Amino acid sequence: MTLPVRMGITLPVPPDVDASLRTAEWAEAQGYDGVWLADVGEIDSLTLAAAIALRTRRVRIGTAIIPVYTRTPVVLASTAYTLAQLAPGRFILGLGASSHLMIEGWHGLKLERPLTRVKETALIVRQALTGEPTRFEGATLRSTGYKLSQAAAVPIHLAALRAKMLELAGEIGDGVVVNLFPARILPRLLEHIAAGAARSGRKLEELEIVCRHQICVTANPAAARDLFRRRFAPYFSTPVYNKFLAWSGHEDAARAIAEGWRAKDRNATQAALTDEIVDQIAIIGDEAHCHARLRELIRGGITTPIVACFSPDPAEFRATYDAFVPARFPVSRPLPPAP
């Protein structure tokens, strides 16, 4: 079984709902397969998903991702049920643990037992979507007696960074969402996903592997690298992503980022993300270079690349999204060997 390559784009376009809707319509018209919504806090991704469902006809609509702590499993199930009716066969529910910045900082909640919480949320949502009454008692969650009028076919994808969550996602997810990883560790990520898939009698090739790629098509790569540092050094200062950076083989950089963040030394924090690390995580350069980098990742096992331009510059934003429309970036499996 070989899954097709499905190109997607990232929404919302903050802070504008109308711009997000127009971008979704444009993406569908250009032949993109999907729009994938980040739950970034400013624009509610699930509300936006409903609006996109009414403004499009073909494009898939996925969340990458909804934190499992901020909505109960029943709320997630009822939302997925609604979106499945608004966009039949087109909605994918992506769930994950998120980060301390969002869960503990923004929401004032405790990011506790993330592996268990993600697993139990996914199991309750999936049980509810069968149309049968929920009957679940777990270590962090319980639900009894909630019943939808009918079943709804909604794939549930799980976001993962390190070994245990990758294996859980491979075991119980319909797909796996990965993010912000150095390209050289992609085989390691896939090994853990495959190990999880084997627990449920499946093969890696049966799972959709989704990745939001931070891309900037630009004539000024040095400036784009600096922008990436400013935007994502705070990400890698949070415990979840700092541990992931160390796990990925960049222990010294992770330590320097944590120390710089504690000292409130912005320059030291950003400087720890060297050009080599930035170029492993992000895709930066002219169109031909960005095409080559993304093809390597697809060849390595990503089935659903999501284009996310991290530059606020309108010209770079448009150049990046234009660069990956199917007419300019045709991809199919199996890809030919790299030249």
Q: What do you see in this structure?
A:
- This protein has 339 residues and is an alpha/beta fold.
- The chain has a domain at 220-285.
- Helix content is 47%, strand content 16%.
- It has 14 helices and 12 strands.
- The strands form 2 sheets. Strands 1-2-3-5-8-9-10-12 form an 8-stranded parallel beta barrel, surrounded by 7 helices. It has a two-stranded antiparallel sheet with strand order 6-7.
- The relative contact order is 0.13.
- The model has no long low-confidence stretch (mean pLDDT 96).
Fold blueprint:
Blueprint: E1 8-11, H1 17-30, E2 34-37, H2 45-55, E3 60-63, E4 66-67, H3 73-86, E5 91-96, H4 100-106, H5 114-128, E6 135-137, E7 142-144, E8 156-159, H6 163-172, E9 175-179, H7 186-199, E10 208-217, H8 221-237, H9 239-247, H10 251-262, H11 266-271, H12 275-281, E11 283-285, H13 287-300, E12 304-309, H14 314-323
Parallel strand pairs: 1-2, 1-12, 2-3, 3-5, 4-5, 5-8, 8-9, 9-10, 10-11, 10-12
Antiparallel strand pairs: 6-7
Helix pairs in contact: 1-2, 2-3, 3-5, 5-6, 6-7, 8-10, 9-10
